[in-house]
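does this look right to u?? adenosine monophosphate version
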Amino acid sequence: MTVETVWVLAEVNDGAPISTSLELLTQARSLATTVEAVTYGDVTAEVAGTLGDYGATTVRNVGDLGGALPGVPVASAMAAAVTAGNGPDAVLFPATYDGRDVAARLSAKLDRPVLTNVVDLVEAEGGLASKHAIFGGSQVLTARFVDEGPALFVVRAKSFPAEPSGGGPAAVESLPVGQLGSSNAARIVDRHVEERSGPKLDEAAVVVSGGRGLGDADQYPLIEELARLLKGAAGASRAIVDAGWVPYSHQVGQTGKTVKPTVYLACGISGATQHLVGMKNSKNIVAVNKDQDAPIFSVADLGIVGDVHKVLPALIEGLKAKG
Amino acid sequence: MNVVVCVKQIPDPAAPPALDPGTKNLVREGKLILDDSDSYGVEMALQLADAAGGGEVTLVSMAPGGETSGLRTALAMGAAKAILVSDDVLAGTDALGTAKVLAAAVRRAEPDLVLAATESTDGYTGTTPVQMAELLGLPSITFAKKVEIEGSSVKVQRQTESGYDEVESPLPAVVTVTAGVVEPRYPSFKGIMATKSKSVETLTVADLGIETDQVGAAGSRQQVTEVADAEARTAGEIVVDEGDGAQRIIAFLEQLKVV
Ligand SMILES: Cc1cc2nc3c(=O)[nH]c(=O)nc-3n(C[C@H](O)[C@H](O)[C@H](O)COP(=O)(O)OP(=O)(O)OC[C@H]3O[C@@H](n4cnc5c(N)ncnc54)[C@H](O)[C@@H]3O)c2cc1C
Ligand SMILES: Nc1ncnc2c1ncn2[C@@H]1O[C@H](COP(=O)(O)O)[C@@H](O)[C@H]1O
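got this back:
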């Protein structure tokens, strides 16, 4: 293998590495000789254990950020290592709020371009090439960097399976930050966590999503009830998130969550390309839409041309009757 | 309170997109329009300048062919003036190159706050504003769903996986806003008439003192090697609901052993 070292930004949430970081570690194992994780905050034995299990030999920890957003300090630490000649051949970032910030900061600090919206990574001519789904996923573009330096990739969730390697806990080393300066002035002063019940949207086996076709915010509880009956999670198109019917955390698509459930049920959703990229890889797709030409039907395994106000209540009754 | 808003002018997203078979860049022909995603930033800037009791909203855009259609829309909403960077050498510029150009243009306006969208409709890298912030040496807060100015700092509700964080930063700073953060106003007739007297300063890459090898296709140091059709999903069964739609869905779920 020609790619020596790959770093993966390991974001930790609720005391555990996020699944996208584990997906990236899994893929990195097949691409590089050495896989290391970069993280920040408190690295517990449990976190080091999980990161090791998914393939990281070392966790390089930037340490406590003192309430700063991760972008500046984490990128500074990575940049300092690269400048000192201890950098990797490539860095993989999860396409999360913070992952994108760190990648962008590092890109500008190193004067290195970054490839975003990556859905696959392969070896090519001694380096790495990335694949990007374009035009709503109907075409796949392959890109690569043409010069030296760490290759920076921001990778979408669920691009790879997360599979443990059975490796032992990763060794924890510190990754000191360099000069920070005034760009590191933003501080998190408070955190608000929305109440959630049932499985997480991006982990649920069944996702039931509603769109503008529901007609009104007070119809959304139909989606929630259906999701509950199917032990799944309730999702949404951006149209109804922007309209304020449901919180942003429900959004499926390019700017929202990427989901890959066993069944995705799209209700009153047209199937705009930005929605499709977030759910197109679901194992089975069921769509209910009154317009038989709606693009969502092009990806549906079962499409019902009908009115959500009739089909959904009947579906809820039918499922309840089954018990 | 002087606010700069980065606004991208893009091909109409409703028109079918295409790649140039030679360069593999997005084909950008015909009139460009204001990216819808940036109309939220423009509205937010106008409201913040208003609330601060004064100051100007300046637009900054990089676009080919001296394009001003999208800028006119934002000027008609109420922005005071615009800086447009347009230069043939910019063809094929990537996000980092764009950030270099925008940073240089923004610097001229000496803003208290710079707004952009979390991501553009046609490029959607979502990295440009933060790369620009780094080049300007400014703090940045992305994914803002609420923005307030308090004295010399900005207070933002920033979207997170599980809710939102309250984040504060001294000004000047770069903030990216999500769609739906405010309701963009429609340009009034008066606003449209007023754009005629508003200035659009058009600059080249040389005017900004940027070396041409920093931008354009060469500056992007990346290459598209292949474009292929994605594996198509096999066509499913599409049926018109005759009162049996719900039962069909249940049968489908049973067959998958989901119920
Ligand atoms: C930069 C960018 C990022 C974006 N990111 C996302 C994203 O992450 N996620 C996302 O979802 N969108 C995203 N979008 C928006 C996307 O382009 C669409 O606007 C959005 O997905 C449309 O939502 P919708 O399908 O609910 O609404 P519409 O497109 O309005 O569709 C409503 C559908 O409901 C059907 N309908 C109406 N009444 C009924 C009825 N009674 N019964 C059954 N069907 C009915 C209609 O036939 C129609 O097909 C993004 C856009 C941009 C520009
Ligand atoms: N050419 C441009 N001119 C002005 N602003 C831009 C340009 N490109 C990107 N931006 C700003 O940066 C945001 C994110 O763009 P992108 O990185 O393409 O997703 C856009 O929504 C704009 O606010």
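Chain A touches chain B through 96 residues (CB under 8 Å). idk if thats expected tbh
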